[in-house]
């Protein structure tokens, strides 16, 4: 039985009524020789799309042709393949394979490139030699055009054992390689969500090992805690076993124990890292990937920025349309290099918990804020540095071209200038740039002296290496030049010899050099001319001497190209040998770039250095929302202050011990009309805290902040259609997560709770949640709500206070002042808003009547108060 594509199908060829679309269904013995090789190759990579080079095209057959045609909207046609009939076929021009493969990989496919590895002309009477030269999977990309400059492309590997897990990840384009281990599946999910890996390796016993599950695709073999949003590669268990993984790591990093890498006693972390390495060996073929030394980290060393918070605080993209513009990263990114831009993203998603680390970054920003010439000179130089991390990665894996090496050399040549600039600086971040190993400078100079000013992209076609680099190369070139000169003179000489003034010497790809004579003059052609081609108006001739020179030029040119290629490859290997040194410096450059950018931002946006203190205080004077502020005209944003969790210590009057006196609440109930600015204020506090913990200055006149272990957010109501959960259930799940994980050192931002259910249920839940946060957990919390009844809590609990966003009421309009002030709003303006929106007068009138009745008879607050006192012993 053969599957077939009929001509009436949208992509099917008109001239092929049926063709085979499954390579497993053909009788191989009846295939042509090339197709036998194709099917053999395909069998080795059954789960990837195989792009097979045939002449000027990369072609796909059978099922891959259908995928290619559908995913790239290409024409699906067919090809006869010996006795079995026609098979489906689709293809792309060979020079455009990268562009097309990028689309496939972005869509979650693995792509295998099987290229011709010899000149078709050499394969006389036999099949051209073809080999798999590259396997592309979403997590193993290196090609410049396939990667986003401003973000890392992570390949991750997970090993799960009960509640415990190991996670390793690497960006093979930059060489980062890290591993960790943890014991709560929630943490694993959060860590994966932070990394947003392009591909995740999972060891399984699945029958279809090697297959790649595209985002959203389900498999019984995938552990439940893994978020469905990623690509998962199902791998065999063996390379993830403790023994195999360990010995692979020892071998790769040439160490005797894993102690130095920090993971000797973390078996799951080791297993994940070993499995990841094996995958790289498997997919990268002979090109070894220059990974940095494996680093072990602990997720609890950093603030967890969970998925909810990342989304609600719009850290890397906006909630509305997922765009970068309007996100916190957009507002903060003043970096000058791609490396810096990537580093800033990493910092934002991994804020620090360690005050010392935060202060070290702040010190550097301060130094750069205060020293304007230094900051400007640094930024000026940084702008001239290309993506050294990725350029080095391409050099190390043998994929850099001559342009890459020139860019690398240009960038390396800026490093000594950077070193000079930071000579007298105090910050360790800046000092890290002070020493550029002399070998690196020399390497940069060597590349510049070897490779021509603007080299071609192709490295096998010559034109790369300068004159004077290699005497043999120069001697060969001189010979070719002599022959070329002889040919160039030939036209003049032959015109003189034959007396034919219209005689021309030309060249074309089929015949090589020739002498062309117009038809009218053919009787004057000398006897040593041999006719080669007849055209309408001219005859074309060759001479034995011309052919001899031509043959010499062509062979010499091939030799020259080969020599240039070899010189280039040797140079590239020299770069690869310095990969670690270059990357260490690149990391330092990236960090300085981030800090310079943050300093620039601080200066131009008027940010202040927050004083980082022990304890639980959050004290911000005239804080601003960093993104909204930048989106409004200058001076339009109304600053607001915040005070939470502050305690004063002083000596007790009658005892030796210290007493603590509360100076600010733990929980703020924030009320105010719609659109007054509650959400904005809430987010502003979260963003200021987050910025402070990456070491940045903050948008405020003054700030004194303690470190938060985590920022929790519950903002807005979003239906989670993907999981089929209602608005209310999503809200309850998120709230439950907060109540179960928040501590007194957390910052909790709640924007409305309980709106998705009946008013009294909603109010009851909101009340109980606020009370639990204030009384039981003592988390610093801002709770924005339209339930004014919650203001009663302040009279019941000492650590709760009421704030409101004020408005000015005029006869026929409300003016939003956006000012947050102490006190609860006594009015919700909901009916007013309805009137302004154009609800009929009678409806408004009636609403006011109903409202009056409800207010008169409501006993909710009083009831809760008496319940409270009767409950307590
Ligand atoms: N401090 C401020 N200064 C200037 N404009 C502000 C300020 N705060 C908020 N705004 C503007 O007011 C608009 C409404 O703010 P926001 O969404 O925070 O209101 P809200 O009180 O949360 O409304 P709702 O209760 O309907 O959710 C925002 O789009 C913002 O542009």
The small-molecule ligands in this entry are: adenosine-5'-triphosphate
The shape is: elongated
Instruction: Tell me the CATH architecture of one domain.
Output: 3-Layer(aba) Sandwich
Radius of gyration, CA atoms, in whole angstroms: 35 Å
Mean pLDDT: 88
- Residues in helices, as a percent range: 40-55%
Biggest sheet overview: 7 strands, mixed
Q: In CATH's first tier, which class of one domain applies?
A: Alpha Beta
So how many helices? 26
Gap between N and C termini, in Å? 82 Å
CATH topology of one domain: Rossmann fold
How much beta, percentage-wise?
15-25%
- Secondary structure: number of strands: 29
Structural class label: alpha/beta
Which features characterize this protein?
19% strand, binds adenosine-5'-triphosphate, six-stranded mixed sheet, 41% helix, Nucleotidyltransferase, domain 5, seven-stranded mixed sheet, alpha/beta, MutS, DNA mismatch repair protein, Chain A, domain 3, elongated, 873 residues, 29 strands, 26 helices, MutS, DNA mismatch repair protein, domain I
């Amino acid at each position: 039985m053969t599957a077939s594509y009929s001509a009436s199908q949208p992509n099917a060829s008109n001239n092929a009524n049926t063709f085979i679309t499954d390579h497993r269904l053909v009788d191989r013995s009846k295939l042509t020789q090339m197709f036998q090789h194709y099917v053999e190759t395909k069998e080795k990579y059954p789960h990837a799309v195989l792009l097979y080079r045939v002449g000027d095209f990369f072609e796909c057959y059978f099922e891959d042709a259908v995928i290619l045609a559908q995913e790239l909207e290409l024409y699906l046609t067919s090809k006869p393949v010996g006795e079995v009939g026609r098979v489906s076929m689709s293809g792309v021009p060979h020079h455009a394979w990268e562009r097309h493969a990028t689309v496939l990989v972005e869509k979650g496919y693995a792509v295998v490139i099987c290229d011709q590895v010899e000149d078709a002309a050499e394969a006389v009477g036999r099949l051209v030699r073809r080999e798999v030269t590259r396997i592309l999977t979403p997590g193993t990309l290196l090609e410049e055009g396939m990667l986003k400059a401003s973000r890392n492309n992570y390949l991750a590997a997970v090993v799960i054992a009960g509640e415990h897990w190991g996670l390793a990840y690497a960006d093979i384009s930059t060489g980062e390689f890290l591993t960790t281990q943890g014991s709560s599946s929630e943490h694993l999910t959060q860590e994966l969500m932070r990394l947003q890996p392009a591909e995740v390796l999972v060891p399984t016993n699945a029958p279809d090992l090697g297959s790649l599950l595209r985002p959203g695709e389900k498999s019984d073999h995938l552990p439940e805690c893994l978020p469905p949003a990623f690509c998962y590669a199902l791998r065999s268990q063996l390379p993830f076993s403790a023994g195999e993984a360990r010995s692979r790591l020892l071998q790769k990093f040439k160490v005797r124990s894993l102690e130095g890498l920090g993971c000797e006693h973390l078996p799951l972390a080791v297993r994940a890292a070993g499995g990841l390495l094996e995958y790289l060996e498997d997919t990268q073929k002979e090109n070894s990937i220059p990974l940095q030394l494996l680093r072990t980290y602990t997720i609890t060393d950093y603030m967890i920025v969970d998925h909810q918070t990342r989304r609600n605080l719009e850290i890397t993209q906006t909630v509305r349309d997922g765009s970068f513009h309007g996100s916190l990263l957009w507002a903060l990114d003043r970096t000058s290099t791609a490396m810096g831009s990537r580093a800033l993203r990493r910092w934002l998603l991994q804020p620090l918990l360690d005050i010392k680390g935060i202060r070290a970054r702040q010190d550097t920003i301060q130094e750069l804020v205060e020293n304007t010439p230094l900051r400007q000179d640094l930024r000026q130089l940084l702008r001239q540095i290309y993506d050294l991390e990725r350029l080095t990665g391409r050099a190390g894996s043998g994929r850099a071209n001559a342009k890459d090496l020139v860019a690398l050399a240009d960038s390396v040549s800026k490093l000594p200038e950077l070193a000079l600039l930071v000579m007298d600086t105090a910050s360790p971040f800046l000092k890290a740039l002070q020493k550029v190993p002399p070998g690196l400078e020399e390497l940069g100079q060597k590349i510049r002296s070897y490779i021509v000013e603007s080299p071609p992209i192709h490295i096998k076609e010559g034109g790369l290496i300068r004159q004077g680099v290699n005497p043999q190369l120069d001697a060969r070139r001189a010979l070719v030049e002599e022959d070329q000169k002889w040919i160039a003179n030939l036209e003049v000489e032959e015109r003189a010899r034959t007396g034919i003034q219209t005689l021309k010497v030309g060249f074309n790809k089929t015949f090589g050099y020739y002498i062309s004579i117009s038809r009218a003059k053919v009787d004057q052609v000398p006897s040593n001319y041999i006719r080669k081609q007849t055209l309408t108006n001219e005859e074309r001739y060759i001479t034995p001497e011309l052919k001899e020179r031509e043959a010499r030029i062509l062979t010499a040119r091939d030799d020259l190209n080969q020599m240039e290629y070899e010189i280039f490859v040797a140079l590239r290997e020299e770069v690869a040998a310095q990969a670690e040194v270059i990357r260490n410096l690149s990391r330092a450059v990236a960090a300085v770039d981030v800090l310079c950018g943050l300093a620039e931002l601080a200066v131009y946006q008027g940010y202040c250095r927050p004083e980082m203190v022990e304890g639980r205080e959050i004290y911000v004077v005239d804080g601003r929302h960093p993104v909204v502020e930048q989106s409004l005209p200058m001076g339009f944003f109304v600053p607001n202050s915040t005070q939470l969790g502050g305690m004063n210590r002083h000596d007790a009057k009658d005892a030796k011990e210290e007493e603590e006196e509360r100076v600010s609440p733990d929980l703020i109930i924030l009320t105010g009309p719609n659109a007054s600015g509650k959400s904005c204020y809430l987010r502003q506090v979260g963003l200021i805290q987050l910025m402070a913990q990456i070491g940045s200055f903050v948008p405020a006149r003054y700030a004194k902040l303690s470190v938060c272990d985590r920022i929790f957010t519950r903002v807005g109501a979003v239906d989670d259609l993907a999981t089929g959960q209602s608005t209310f259930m999503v809200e309850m799940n998120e709230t439950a997560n907060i109540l179960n994980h928040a501590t007194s050192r957390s910052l909790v931002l709640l924007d409305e709770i309980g709106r998705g259910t009946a008013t009294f249920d909603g109010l009851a839940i909101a009340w109980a949640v606020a009370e639990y946060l204030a009384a039981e957990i003592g988390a610093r919390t801002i709770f924005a709500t339209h339930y004014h009844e919650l203001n009663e809590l302040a009279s019941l609990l000492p650590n709760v206070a009421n704030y409101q966003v004020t408005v000015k009421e005029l006869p026929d309009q409300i003016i939003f002042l956006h000012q947050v002030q102490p006190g609860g709003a006594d009015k919700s303006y909901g009916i007013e808003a309805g009137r302004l929106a154009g609800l009929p007068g009678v409806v408004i009138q009636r609403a006011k009547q109903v409202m009056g009745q409800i207010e008169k008879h409501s006993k909710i607050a009083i009831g809760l108060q008496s319940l409270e006192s009767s409950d307590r012993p």
